[in-house]
Amino acid sequence: MKRPTRVPGGGILHRAAQANRISRCAGSSWTNGFSTAVAAPPANDRTLSPVHVGVVGLGYVGLPLAVAFAEAGLRVTGLDTDPARVAGIASGRSHVGDIPDDRLGATSARFVATTRPSDLAVADAILICVPTPLTPEREPDLGPLLAAGRVVAGQLRAGQLVVLESTTYPGTTRDQLLPLFEAGGLRVGTDVHLAYSPERVDPGRTDHTLRSTPKVVGGVTAGCAEAARELYARVCDEVVVVSSPEAAELAKLLENVFRSVNIALVNELALLCDRMGIDVWEVVDAAATKPYGFMRFDPGPGMGGHCIPVDPFYLSWRARSFDMTTEFVELAGKVNQQMPHHVVERVQRSLNDVGLAVRGARIALLGVAYKAGTSDTRESPALKIIRLLRELGADLRYHDPLVPTVEGLESSAFPAVLDEIDLAVLVTAQPGIDVDVTIARAPRLLDLRGVTRGHDADHVERL
């Protein structure tokens, strides 16, 4: 079996060809597509070094990539369908928490954002960083990815490198993008390069950055993989080359399924500990003292964010086309999706202990983002908790220093949010939420994150 090649960062690519760049008509939507022919550079220029990078999608993945390449001295064109987002970038305002305004502003001489797909024609390498959500039936929705692919296909010219970064199921790069790109007559591996390199962004994290996190790449051909490796070596200290796009696609899913399964395991243990009257946090703390054969995962109110609640469904959907059911993976998803219901049950029990019903109870939720240190509420368990408590008639308020509005509510100031309430529920331990003040001011507190460990108080309960 071929082993992944671990390649240290470095290595200077050849200078890219500047000739035969012909501008094409602009469009306002990725779904339009473009097919106007563009003169190709000479064949001997097709493997030259990228000096101009295009990034399709300027969200939490695309914007940091664009900034990183601009900081490395490359010219960058970023394409996004949201005019407000593009205007904000042009004025130096970042919409991504990991990229402060001053860092974005420092790249203005090399990084230009646009809504015109034709501006990608000048790029030597194009990185696709668009969402890959689920349909209402919890199946892969490749709509944004295919729309972006059609836009790139409309601008494609010989000598370019295209890399997909969006998380997806194994086979997407080869089965979906390759036919799009070859429909115009160019051949992948001969005229253009195509590769997959999964994003590894963890919003709010500062100890592992794009530079320090190893970058996995898999090319349709060995030449495609090498082109992608050399590009990413500009901004990553280590590039890990695998044998194919499929291996890279599945590696990304494995990373997130691993977390989903282990979070489900400890969440199920929390349910059992609740029935047995055992402190799950004490159990996890004790198990974590083992220096080998154990990796710590903490229980919580459920999963959230851009990857872990979504990616397992991409894997299980793809597995069904091979006559296989990923029962372990799907069971983990069910356990994690039920945790908000368990939280609401705990809220009911806590209020019942003091003779109160949920209907009419004044409940303050502390932290509504899916994890601490971010403003991201995508798939946050807090959203489901809010909806369930509303259905039961609770009088809700919340505080989150990074999320000004959610579900029709506005964030209340801390600690005033704790005044005249019946119960506080700490959903996400955001910076700025003082645990000691919360314990002192809340008449009852349900801690879903275990941050009150070490505080003995009769009115404090933990998941």
UniProtKB/TrEMBL annotation:
GO terms for molecular function: NAD binding; oxidoreductase activity, acting on the CH-CH group of donors, NAD or NADP as acceptor; oxidoreductase activity, acting on the CH-OH group of donors, NAD or NADP as acceptor. GO terms for biological process: polysaccharide biosynthetic process. Signal peptide: none annotated. Keywords: NAD, Oxidoreductase. Residues 364-454 form the UDP-glucose/GDP-mannose dehydrogenase C-terminal domain. The keyword Membrane does not apply. This is Unannotated protein. It comes from freshwater metagenome.
